[in-house]
């Protein structure tokens, strides 16, 4: 597509993360293109494209299952397509950014120097208008321009700084890091749906544990998970901190092994202790709530509050609530209840959370061993064999299914 743009008389460069990752010796996951063609001109040139965005308009060109993002060179205002405009809110946040400019202006409008490198297909050279190439050699993440101004333009840049530092093993240049804790409250005004997208990039792409540590170091984590941060502050025995790190490490290992992950499980881990803390408070307020009812009410309240900060889609938030509500039920070992729990569609995820809680030192490993044996159909003299549906001699009991009963499917943990 670069050559088609070039043959049509436009400038076209590979830019951003793809160029950066190649120079760092990494395998790029995608490639972006920067051009002096407007989005409408790109759309006219590629029938397999569509225009997206209002605040930042660009073209997506599809090749099979791959999508190439094509952005027009951005300027500092005034130019463009009639709608082309660069509008900044009084807080400093950019509201619209569709003013076209030159490649030099475009480079200075990008976030970090390592993302402002352009690969030119005409002579196979790299164009560097900042200190990007040098910063890559020094493994340094440096914001372009005045850091405070740039963070105010788009507070998500602070999250990107944490993520890229964790993902690429780059040190954040001191002047770029210094304002972040002071400006972290700006994250509170970022739309919750956008923060969910950032959560996926931070925690579901193979570098969740270093991202979490960097977010805490830069005082950003509390603005994504305020209830979790409050629980960590009162984590006297350190078990909740260990639980989170174990879950994040496990998630990274699954991504590295090309196994599926879901944000549902990590949200369950991160909100478990806040739910535990709130449940007895709700009971103390009266209303004759049972332990299970109090936990269910706490789960609903904590989940709703978290979704106001990070907009978790219902396809993740509802299963997450089920996983949390199953935790006290896993303490029950009566054979009939055990059989029902083993067939619950969220059992596997709930079991994995239980196992991590034991590893973190929150509960006794014996409870996990019981459920491990129950799944394997091993009796061990504690009802596990009966719970798994065997008759103690290795033969499975035949049970007539009731009409209309649904067979529960075990969900992958995460």
Could you please describe the fold and organization of this structure?
There is one protein chain. The chain has 21 helices and eleven strands. By secondary structure, the chain is α+β, with helices and mostly antiparallel strands. The protein has a domain at 1-138: Beta Polymerase, domain 2, CATH 3.30.460.10. The strands form three sheets. It has a seven-stranded mixed beta sheet with strand order 3-4-5-2-1-8-9. Strands 6-7 form a two-stranded antiparallel sheet. A hairpin with a 4-residue loop joins strand 8 and strand 9. Helix 13 (226-233) crosses helix 15 (263-284) and helix 15 crosses helix 17 (314-326). It is elongated and about 75 Å long.
Report the span from N to C terminus.
37 Å
Per CATH, the architecture of the domain at 1-138 is 2-Layer Sandwich
Main sheet attributes: strand count, strand direction, barrel closure: 7 strands, mixed
SSE-based structural type: alpha+beta
User: What's the gyration radius in Å?
Assistant: 26 Å
User: Total helix count?
Assistant: 21
Categorize the overall geometry: elongated
Average pLDDT, all residues? 87
- Beta-strand residue fraction: 5-15%
Which superfamily, in CATH terms, is the homologous superfamily of the domain at 1-138? Answer: Beta Polymerase, domain 2
